[in-house]
């Protein structure tokens, strides 16, 4: 029996009817045309780490270097079992399936003139199989796992040379697959990816230098914008697709109505993934709150600046925001708290996740990363509407319950989770006018999680790794 992650089955139970069903009550109806599905990513599900000419990506390198035998070498083995996976997706009546393409499987050494034809054929097969079942592909061009060769050559996303490689790579994908694919996101969770990589939690590692984090974010924004303009000029008229950018949000609410806490939440949200990415794309620069806060610390030089030409390139370079949303947070003023405050986990990482100078307040006995906050799926779309306009489309590209040690048959808990979150989302759409066009649960299959391996939900294959 193929191991679907419990969230997907529970999600469909919560909705009541797969693929655009109705939650009880008119306000909770998913609108006509809303795309409903689930997602995966290449490293986390494909396995086949050295099969058919694939190159070594940054995770292959790091986990093998460290001697870690819990890795994505096999993962869900989707490379060899994609037909089985897609058949399951069809049986669940999913309308859209999100997956990523591995740069190292297409260009094994990162050189975009060295094409691995077997890798190219694999993704044709995946796309064709999805279309055979009338499932719409949503492709993430890069989900963290670029070739290690690019790190060795020039430091990966620390160098603007990575932008050129990424644009060439995207150009190849549009040319190869664009006549069959109309939904693309360029980079997954730019803000979190850069924060994790350059704080040493993910391959290739880093030294906790916040300037490195901001530099990575800057280069990825420029890469996205150049890819967007490329598609706009070269492919959009014929292929009629849309290109989005990916962020993860941990949007904040204040711990109290005190001015200091309200201001802390506002400041935290300017450092959040939504604003750190959308502010340049809508207004041409990072939020002034971010720049002023860093300047007050004597670190203003760490946040890059956009040239006039780059501002022209970046502004308006988005068709939709791909938003990964798991939990919001409650924050108080200051970096210390006498009421259960904590900056553990992601909040302790150097860069935008910690530079807002706020304290995250635990909700009950829940650890910050595992807090269940359904209001996030209403607050985040409304925050985007208020700050970046109602015309910007939003696609919820990841949402699901992460809990260490949970069992795959905890249907009631997961169904309640998805019901609560989807009720907030549909309220934002139907009552508040949020422009949300789709939702893909994370994850379709039991997968390797970068910071938790197979520890969030037991894997049927974990013992083989």
Automatic annotation (TrEMBL):
Name the UniProt record assigns to this protein: beta-glucosidase
Keyword NAD found: no
E.C. numbers: 3.2.1.21
Keywords noted in UniProt: Glycosidase, Hydrolase, Signal
Organism: Megalurothrips usitatus (bean blossom thrips)
Xref: Pfam families: Glyco_hydro_1 (PF00232)
Annotated signal sequence range: 1-19
Family: Belongs to the glycosyl hydrolase 1 family.
């Amino acid at each position: 029996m193929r191991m679907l992650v419990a969230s997907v089955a529970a999600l469909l139970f919560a909705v009541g009817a797969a693929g655009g069903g109705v939650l009880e009550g008119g306000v909770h109806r998913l609108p006509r045309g809303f795309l409903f599905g689930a997602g995966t990513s290449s490293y986390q599900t494909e396995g086949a780490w050295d099969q058919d000419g694939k190159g070594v990506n940054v995770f292959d390198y790091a986990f093998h270097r460290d001697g870690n035998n819990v890795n994505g070498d096999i993962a869900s083995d989707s490379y060899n079992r994609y037909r089985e996976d897609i058949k399951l997706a069809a049986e669940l009546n999913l309308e859209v399936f999100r997956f990523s393409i591995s740069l190292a499987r297409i260009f094994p050494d990162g050189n975009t003139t060295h094409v691995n034809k077997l890798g190219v054929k694999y993704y044709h097969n995946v796309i064709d199989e999805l279309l055979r079942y009338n499932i719409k592909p949503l492709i993430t061009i890069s989900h963290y796992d670029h070739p290690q060769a690019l790190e060795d050559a020039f430091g990966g996303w620390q160098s603007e040379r990575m932008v050129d490689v990424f644009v060439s790579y995207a150009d190849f994908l549009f040319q190869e697959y664009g006549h069959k694919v109309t939904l693309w996101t360029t980079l997954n969770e730019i803000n979190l990816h850069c924060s994790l990589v350059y704080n040493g939690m993910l391959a290739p590692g880093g030294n906790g230098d916040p300037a490195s984090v901001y530099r990575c974010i800057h280069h990825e924004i420029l890469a996205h914008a150049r890819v967007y303009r490329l598609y706009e000029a070269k492919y959009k008229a014929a292929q009629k697709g849309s290109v989005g950018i990916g962020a993860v949000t941990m949007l904040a609410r204040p711990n109290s109505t005190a001015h200091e806490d309200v201001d802390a939440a506002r400041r935290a949200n300017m450092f959040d993934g939504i604003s750190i990415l959308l502010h340049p794309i809508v207004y041409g620069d990072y939020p002034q709150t971010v720049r002023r806060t860093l300047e007050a610390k004597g670190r203003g030089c760490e946040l890059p600046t956009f040239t006039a030409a780059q501002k022209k390139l970046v502004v308006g370079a988005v068709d939709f925001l791909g938003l990964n949303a798991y939990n919001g947070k409650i924050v108080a003023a200051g970096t210390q708290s006498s009421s259960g405050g904590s900056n553990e986990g992601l909040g302790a990482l150097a860069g935008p996740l910690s530079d807002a100078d706020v304290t995250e307040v635990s909700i009950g006995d829940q650890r910050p990363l595992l807090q269940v906050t359904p209001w996030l799926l209403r607050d985040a779309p409304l925050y985007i509407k208020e700050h970046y306009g109602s015309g910007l489309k939003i696609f919820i590209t990841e949402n699901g319950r992460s809990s260490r040690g949970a069992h795959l048959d905890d249907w009631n808990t997961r169904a309640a989770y998805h019901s609560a979150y989807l009720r907030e989302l549909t309220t934002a759409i139907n009552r508040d006018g949020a422009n949300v066009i789709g939702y893909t649960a994370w994850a379709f299959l039991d997968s390797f999680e970068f910071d938790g391996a197979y520890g969030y939900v037991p894997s049927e294959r974990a013992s083989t790794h």
